[in-house]
Amino acid sequence: MSPHIEEKVRILLCEDDISLGSLLADFLHRLNFDVELCSNGEEGLKCFQKRHFDICLLDINMPQMNGFEMLEEIRKTGNEVPVIFLTERRATEDIIRGYNLGCDDYLIKPCPMDILLCKIRAIMRRSHLTKKNSEVEFDLGNGVHFDSVRQMLGDEHLAARESELLLILCRNLNTLVERNVILRTIWSQDSYFASRSLSVYVNHLRKHLVGTKRQIIGLHGKGYKLVEI
C-alpha cells in the first residue's frame, strides 16, 4: 500500500540533531505532511503557541527545554494534541514519566521510518474518530440544524430512534452505513421486525429532511447513506 496521506496533517517536529531532524522532516514532507522543524524545546513551544498542529514528535534530550518539560507546558494549557516521544532514552522510569505526562506513544531511536509513519497514522485515525464521535449538532443546510442531544431537527422533535438513526447517518455523511450495522446499533438485533421498523423510520426522516440540503439514499439490501444535495 502506498504511504500517501490524503489530508495534510500539521506536524511539529522537535529534534536537536539537525541531520536527523532534516531527514525526518524531508521524509514526512514527501508524504504530504506539513512539518515544522525546531531544534530545541523552547523554540518548539513558541512555535506551538503560534500555530495549530495535529500531532507533535518530540525528542527528550533537547537544550533550553527538554521534551518532558515541553509536554508538561503543553498539557498545562489543557491542549490534548497527540504527542509521540522519539528518543534514545529507554529507561523504564523515563517511559513511565512520558506516559504520565500525557504522551500518546514513546518510540526508541533508532526507529524505522515506516514504523513511525504507522504510529502517526494510527494516532491520527483515533484522533479523527474521537472528534467525529463527539459532534452532537449538525448543519443540514438552508438554516436547519440537527441537535442530537435535544433530539431536535429544526423545530421538529424526533422520536428517540429517529434521532439515533439520523445521528449515525450524520456522522457518516456521504458514506454508506450497512443495514445490519444500523439494526444492531439501534435495535440490538437484525430481525425481520427490526428491519421493517428501520424502513419506517427512514421514510419518516426523509419527510423531515425536505427543505434541507440533505437526503437519505438507500442501496437495496445493503444500507443507507445521508448525502449532500
Gist?
The protein is an alpha/beta fold and 229 residues long.
Give an account of the 3D structure.
The longest helix has 22 residues, at 113-134. With 229 residues, this protein is an alpha/beta fold. Mean pLDDT is 90; it is low at 1-6. α6 (160-171) crosses α8. The strands form three sheets. The protein has a five-stranded parallel beta sheet, with helices on both faces. The protein has a four-stranded antiparallel beta sheet with strand order 6-7-8-9, with helices on one face. It has eight helices and twelve strands. The chain is elongated and about 65 Å long.
Show unreliable segments: 1-6
Task: Specify the overall morphology.
Answer: elongated
Evaluate the radius of gyration: 23 Å
How much helix, percentage-wise, in residues?
40-55%
Largest sheet: 5 strands, parallel
Give the count of helical stretches.
8
Beta strand count: 12
Given the helix and strand composition, which structural class is it? alpha/beta
Strand content range: 15-25%
Q: What number is the mean pLDDT?
A: 90
Order of helices and strands: EHEHEHEHEHEEEEHEHHEE
Tell me the span between the first and last alpha carbons.
Answer: 33 Å
Lateral strand order in the biggest sheet? 2-1-3-4-5
